Amino acid sequence: LALAGMPPRLERAVDSLISHRIPVVVAAGGDRDKRRLPWPACRPGVISVGATHDSDHVSPASNSSRQLTL
Q: What is the C-alpha separation between 45 and 23, in angstroms, rounded?
């Protein structure tokens, strides 16, 4: 699920953290995309965090999808 041009070193670092059961928490992004999350937020095993309003609803500016964790 990596984006084209994602440094392999960064991919290996995320994979290593996950394999060692170290939580990886990343921002979901702010591109208003409601269909998908960018890498590494879309990667299985990663905790993706979106933005919300005071009323605890997802902000329109926040990326979100079924993959969004928080």
A: 8
Output helix, strand, coil percentages for the chain, rounded to the nearest 5.
15, 10, 70
Residue 1 has pLDDT above 80, yes or no: no
Q: Which residues of 21-33 are buried (b: 16+ CB within 10 A; e: fewer)?
A: eeebebebbeeee
Quickly list H helices, 1-70: 8-19
Give the pLDDT score at 8: 87
Question: What is the predicted pLDDT for the residue at 2?
Answer: 41
Backbone angles phi, psi at 48, to 5 degrees: -100, 135
